[in-house]
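Example for tutorial group B:
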């Protein structure tokens, strides 16, 4: 079974710095999710859009996260709307070309 990517997108109400304060608090809760390898927070303040990319060790861990309280709380929050998610398998057989290039010649 391959690692799984969860792509989350949503619109938020209020200033971007408020969103950043809230997700800073949620970061520790998200970090403790079983099977979560990493998460990247996303924001586009100009469009009031935010989201995240999550890498889970397997599909069961991703599904468990989507059924959990943190997820349900986010989706039902009054400042959040137009929530969309997509789940992807990873192609582990394809090398990480960009990472290899960066390791060979770090940007200045």
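The residue assignment follows.
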């Amino acid at each position: 079974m391959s690692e799984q990517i969860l792509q989350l997108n949503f619109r938020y109400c209020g200033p971007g710095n408020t969103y950043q304060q809230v997700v800073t608090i949620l970061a520790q809760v998200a970090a403790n999710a079983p099977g979560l390898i990493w998460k990247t927070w996303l924001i586009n303040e100009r469009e009031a859009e935010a989201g995240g990319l999550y890498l889970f060790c397997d599909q069961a861990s991703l599904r468990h996260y989507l059924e959990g309280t943190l997820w349900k709380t986010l989706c039902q929050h009054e400042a959040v709307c137009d929530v969309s998610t997509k789940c992807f398998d990873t192609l582990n057989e394809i090398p990480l070309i960009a990472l290899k290039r960066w390791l060979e010649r770090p940007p200045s």
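Residues 4-104 form a domain with the Alpha-Beta Plaits fold (CATH 3.30.70.100). Compare this with the pattern of hydrophobic and polar residues in the output above.
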